[in-house]
Amino acid sequence: MKYFLTGGTGFVGSYLAKLLRSNGHEVVALVRSPANAQALADIGCTLEQGDVTDKESMRRPMTGCDGVFHVAGWYKMGARRKYRKAGKYTNIKGTRNVMELMTELGINKGVYTSSLAVNSDTKGKLADESYQYDGPHLSHYDFTKAEAHKIALDFMKKGLPLVVVMPGLIYGPSDTSSVRTTLIQYLKGKLPMVPRKVAFSWAHVEDIAQAHYQAMQNGTPGEKYIIAGPTHTLVDAVSLAHRITGKRLPRAVNPGLMRLLSRVMSVLGIIFPIPPDYSSENLRVLAGATYIGDNSKAKAELDYNPRSLKDGLSTTLWHEMRLLKMV
Questions:
Q1: In whole angstroms, what is the distance from residue 7 CA to residue 93 CA?
Q2: Closest by alpha carbon to 113, among 55, 75, 69?
Q3: Which of 131, 154, 156, 241 has the fewest CB atoms inside 10 Å of its own CB, making it the most exposed?
């Protein structure tokens, strides 16, 4: 089969590209700069220069493809206001462009990468695919993904043969998000504190890539699937990291402290450039929020079988320790 892939140079997209190629499929990867996508070329992907925000740049490469994986997305927690426009362009406009073009070209099937972030803070509820949230979001990322999610669902209602997958927190080797930053800070003994109550559904990137593949092969068009991993608090995850590595445990603090710091940083951020990890937005998320979901449907219909956090975190931490020359 011939698949069109957006976001192939990203974290999930790069793993998905490898998986597709290892299963003998042809991959047409949309990239902004072919010169920066040599890893995709090395595994046999066809590189096509373009951008999801430029609809016509995708028309020729997508033409004739059997399916589309729309994985590309903007993810910047704590980005200053002047940089947030990129989130709207990539996540919202980009998603609309891909869906419109799939419709115009009569693509047989597509898989769109949404997120549990569309539900924002579930306040401890393990959300399933029927869960709906229409309130204010904790971050600009949450907002833009929620708007893109609505666009995807609207196209599905109009008959586009689309499957929507919803990951939670994704981790693993080659991560480029703040998750990796947190793990590295922990390994270096520079993680000052860990907030209580904040929880995520943790999935290893290889399991997420596999779930995308299964969604294309076996997912029912018009359906949503939560492909999150097992749910753990951040305190639990760091405690597990301590048992794996023996590194010092940071102090666990109450969410109220994070809320207070968030308000302080919201004022300071107007005057000074604040590092993303300490931005008001990031601290709001860490103030006891739960981004968690029930993956029962994906397990039943996609044969989704995510690994335990212990297994996934162990390989990830040892990978980072080797890069840091700690082992």
A1: 15
A2: 69
A3: 154
pLDDT digits (tens, 9 = 90+) for 192-228: 888 889 999 999 999 999 999 999 999 999 999 999 9
Q: Specify the number of domains making up the chain.
A: 1
Q: What average pLDDT does the structure give for the chain?
A: 90
What separation in angstroms does the CA of 165 have from each of 65, 153, 192, 279, 327? 20, 11, 34, 29, 37
Q: In the structure, what pLDDT confidence band is assigned to residue 261 with cuts at 50, 70 and 90?
A: low
Rounded to the nearest 10 degrees, the angle between the axes of helix 140-157 and helix 94-105 is: 20
Cα–Cα distances (Å) from 41 to 27, 163, 169, in that order, read 10, 27, 28
Structural domain for 46, as ranges: 2-174+202-231+291-307
**Cα distance between residue 103 and residue 98, in whole Å:** 9
pTM over 0.85: yes
Let me know if residue 322 belongs to a domain. Answer: no
Tell me if 115 is assigned to some domain: yes
- Cα–Cα distance, 247 to 312 (Å, whole number): 18
Which CATH number belongs to the domain containing residue 69 in this structure?
3.40.50.720
Contact (Cβ atoms closer than 8 angstroms) between residue 198 and residue 290? yes
Q: What is the pLDDT of residues 56-75, one digit of tens each?
A: 999 999 999 999 999 999 87
